[in-house]
Specification:
heterodimer, A: 758 residues, mainly alpha, 75% helix, elongated, B: 132 residues, Helix Hairpins, 3 helices, 0% strand
Chain lengths: 758, 132
């Protein structure tokens, strides 16, 4: 299993080369990768259906409990089969759909990388592995939505999808870590057995909210549904694969996976049912606004995802119908929606439009695509004899068992819109005149839809084929063994009546649709997307504000921030650390020392007052020479000599420069802020020195240098030995700095000379 | 003496900071040098005063007590030299700036080059109602 995932990633990386090498045939060859993986996972069917779970682990950071561990049960196997199976046809389809596109090689690469990440996501057992794969699917989805990156709308949709799903991913990470802390393990398979403990833990609610945020954003649940229809800017294979069949189901998968651990509480069931139903109805309602095939299908996907979340919420409340309905409806939806999307893309590709009001008479010119659409449409409408019918029947039974009547009624309304959509999709194939010069696309374009829709029919006619795997899926979701007999014809019951009602309502909606569509498409309806835009704008404005505040471009402002920070931090440390002392036992100053210090201070004050340049240099020299004299009086001859030398050189340099500048001109009065900062910093420095002098002195290091200077450094001047021997590297660095400064000065002056003699 | 020095260093630091915050770059430079001197004195005092002899080893191998602390002296020696290198570079830079731009006012020197701002991502957001 670990090998399969590695093969998927490595195989994806070879895609651009294979594409360059094989040209148009690359799609068919690359499809062998998902096909081979599909066969591998299919070979594991007997074991999993037999009730076994497979687990493989590769150590990653074992000391932290982080592993590449993977876990295969019915639920992950169904997803793995969907990902690889549909992926096979998607890769073939992409070759036909994007034929001749200059970036097709990159497209193969990213879509196969997505497939590998999605496989890793549904197989992951370790929550860190799960999170990494989760974010990888968000990233690849971003790249695929923005595939037509020269178009603004694509870029915006891609960014939106990334911000929403990756943002949710962060919440998910936090939630999963909380779960791991509560359950004491990073492995999901171990957390699943601790449902009781998790549900009674005080952190249960925060963890649940965070996990739900991750799942809801990924699976486009209300109020985060808006990114999914926008993501239809992506090329159609992407919409068919990521945004209907697989990636958007990652959130649903996670909820189903964690159901045995987190489910069973009041808040779990009511939240999932509430948001699921809201999403179902939102998707259904907004369907009425559109005539674009892909948009219509996108809102229908939103509705279906809502139905799946609703079902997961129902799982703890029913014996097994909800889990079974989940297993059946999930597969049915992936099959018919993947097929419909590909068919829509094929129609767009051949007829040049996706507007259902413009299309007509297609069956005569595109019979194979037509058959696929009819079969998938039956599934979407929930009519016999296809899998979609069975899925919806079991769903209705589950809802009737545990949900209030009004909830069931709303669900029926939501599904009725699905039936209407099926009619909307099928009718253009039969009514009206076929457009000119439209014909069936190449096999790559009709193979996928036909196979997926045909599978829906096959499994509908012979539900026994799927029954063992469905039982395994339902068992994984339910948390205990489920055995249920799937039947195409369950006999006359209330659910069948509801199905009939759904279809009748759907037909009614179909006749209402033209008028409703014209009415609803007029005005932009305010929705959560407005909040998203407002949030983004607010963020940008905040960033601009912070930039204006901190990155003003003004030297004085930067310095003011630095000095204020210094005053604040040092002041806080002094105050909090209790380091405010008056030193005892300091030596009393002699008269000449007092005079010297007073002279220096007067010099400094003079620098504040004076306007003449040369006077400033003199004043500066007063301070510098004073410092040198302090060094001399305190037995630091080397320092004193260096200081005198440097002061002299600096004074000469400044004087030379100042000769060029006659006057610094009128200078504005000092701001109170500047004065306050200066006094604050001076005060802090004084307090710091007083506090420091009050501490006992630690002479070890100095004694070490004094003792080792002669025997180990072979020099009697301890300061010099420290510089060139004990701290030689420091001095080397210092020489480098001086050298660089010299180079800088040289470069600055040289440039001037060149300018002077052009 | 130490206490007096503490107040002197505080005063020098205040003067340095104030000058650095002034708009004219020459004042900034002077302030920078004054602040550097204050910092050196701080380090020096941290090594304690009150010595009688410089940190030199006698030919006999002994150091006359109480000798001045050699460690801060070594640190300050490095600091003085680096400070000078920085000051020298700054002086020449300001000299060139004065020649090229005709001003050394930190507030107005920025307005000489005009760099047009890059479009911010906010401009890319939809302006009318949300399009679906």
């Amino acid at each position: 299993m670990v090998v399969a995932i590695i093969v998927a990633f490595v195989g994806a990386l070879t895609a651009p080369w294979l594409h360059r090498w094989l040209g148009h045939a690359a799609g068919w060859v690359l499809a062998l990768l998902p096909l081979g993986l599909a066969f591998y996972f299919a070979s594991l069917l007997p074991e999993v259906v037999g009730g076994q779970t497979l687990r493989h682990s590769l150590a990653w950071v074992p000391s932290l409990g982080v592993n590449f561990s993977f876990y295969l049960d019915g639920l992950s196997l169904l997803f793995a089969l969907l990902i690889t199976g549909i992926g096979t046809f998607i890769v073939i389809y992409s070759g036909g759909y994007l034929k001749g596109h200059p970036d097709l090689g990159r497209f193969y690469l990213v879509i196969l990388l997505f497939m590998a990440s999605m496989l890793g996501l549904v197989l992951a057992d370790n929550i860190v592995t799960l999170f990494v794969m989760w974010e990888l699917t968000s990233l690849t989805s971003y790249l695929l939505i923005g595939f037509h990156h020269s178009e603004f709308r694509s870029r915006r949709a891609a960014t939106q999808a990334l911000l929403v799903t990756a943002g949710g991913g962060l919440a998910l990470l936090a939630g999963l870590i909380l779960l791991a802390l509560m359950g004491g393990s990073l492995e999901i398979s171990e957390l699943l057995g601790q449902g009781q403990l998790l549900r009674e833990h005080p952190l249960y609610l925060p963890a649940l909210i965070l996990v739900l945020l991750g799942a809801f954003t990924k699976s486009a649940q209300f109020p985060f549904h808006f990114w999914l229809p926008n993501a239809m800017e992506a090329p159609t294979p992407v919409s068919a694969y990521l945004h209907s069949a697989t990636m958007v189901k990652a959130g649903v998968y996670l909820l189903a996976r964690l159901q045995p651990a987190l489910g069973g509480s009041e808040v779990w069931s009511s939240t999932l049912m509430l948001f699921g139903l809201a999403t179902l109805l939102t998707g259904a309602t907004l369907t009425f606004r559109h005539t674009d095939l892909k948009r219509l299908l996108a809102y229908s996907t939103v509705a279906a995802l809502g139905a799946l979340v609703f079902l997961i919420g129902l799982v703890p409340l029913t014996d097994y119908y909800a889990a079974m309905g989940f297993a059946t409806f999930l597969l049915a939806h992936s099959l018919y929606k993947g097929g419909l999307f590909m068919a829509a893309g094929a129609v767009d590709h051949e007829a040049g439009t996706r507007d259902i009001t413009q299309l007509g008479g297609l069956f005569r010119v595109m019979p194979l695509t037509g058959v696929a659409v009819v079969l998938a449409g039956l599934s979407l409408a929930g009519l016999p004899p296809v899998l979609g019918f069975i899925g919806k029947e079991v769903l209705y039974v589950a809802a009737l068992q545990a949900a209030p009547a009004w909830v069931v009624g709303l669900a029926v309304l939501g599904f009725a819109v699905g039936a209407m959509l099926a009619l909307l999709l099928v009718v253009p194939f039969f009514r009206g005149q076929p457009p000119q010069k439209v014909h069936e696309g190449p096999p790559s374009l009709w193979l996928g839809p036909l196979v997926l829709a045909g599978l829906g029919l096959l499994l509908g006619l012979f539900p026994g084929l799927y029954n063992p795997l469905a039982d395994a899926v339902a068992s994984a979701v339910k948390g205990k063994t489920v055995a249920y007999h799937l039947k195409l014809w369950p006999g006359f019951n209330l659910a069948l009546l509801l199905s009939l009602l759904t279809v009748l309502l759907g037909v009614g909606f179909y006749f209402l649709y033209p008028r409703l569509q014209a009415w609803m498409a007029q005005e932009p309806i305010p929705g959560p997307e407005n909040a998203y835009v407002a949030l983004l704008r607010g963020l940008m404005r905040l960033a601009a504000g912070v930039e204006r505040l901190l990155q003003s471009g003004s030297l004085r402002a930067y310095l003011a921030w630095i000095f204020a920070g210094l005053v604040g931090l040092v002041g806080l440390a002094l105050f909090r650390g209790g380091a405010l002392f008056w030193p005892a036992g300091a030596s009393s100053p002699r008269l000449e020392q007092v005079l010297l210090l007073a002279l220096m201070f007067l010099g400094a004050i003079g620098a504040l007052r004076l306007r003449s340049h040369l006077a400033m240099v003199v004043v500066l020299g007063l301070v510098g020479a004073g410092v040198a004299l302090v060094f001399l009086l305190q037995n630091a001859p080397d320092l004193s000599i260096t200081q005198f030398l440097v002061e002299t050189l600096t004074a000469i340099l400044i004087a030379l420069v100042l000769l060029q500048i006659r006057s610094i001109g009128p200078v504005p009065r000092g701001r109170w802020l500047d004065k306050g900062l200066a006094l604050g910093l001076g005060g802090v420095v004084t307090l710091l020195m007083l506090g420091m002098l009050a501490q006992p002195f630690e002479p070890h290091l100095s004694q070490f240098f004094a003792q080792k200077s002669l025997p180990e450094g072979f020099g009697r001047n301890i300061v010099n030995v420290i510089l060139v021997d004990f701290r030689g590297l420091d001095t080397f660095g210092e020489i480098t700095v001086v050298g660089l400064a010299g180079l800088g000065v040289w470069a600055l002056l040289k440039r001037r000379r060149r300018e002077e003699q052009p | 003496m130490e206490i007096l020095l503490a107040f002197l260093v505080g005063g020098l630091a205040a003067v340095g900071v104030y000058l650095m915050l002034r708009p004219h770059l020459i004042q900034f430079l002077i302030g920078f040098l004054v602040l550097g001197n204050a910092a050196n004195l701080l380090i020096f005092t941290a090594g304690r005063l009150g010595s009688q002899f410089p940190p030199l080893v006698q030919p006999s191998g002994a150091v006359l007590e109480p000798y001045a602390n050699p460690l801060p002296q070594a640190l300050i020696l490095t600091a003085i030299v680096i400070g000078f290198a920085l000051a020298a570079f700054g002086i020449v830079l300001f000299y060139r700036a004065q020649q090229a731009l005709g001003t050394l006012n930190a507030e107005t020197i920025l307005e000489a080059p005009d760099v047009s701002p890059a479009p911010s991502p906010v401009d890319e957001l939809p302006t009318e109602g949300v399009r679906r």
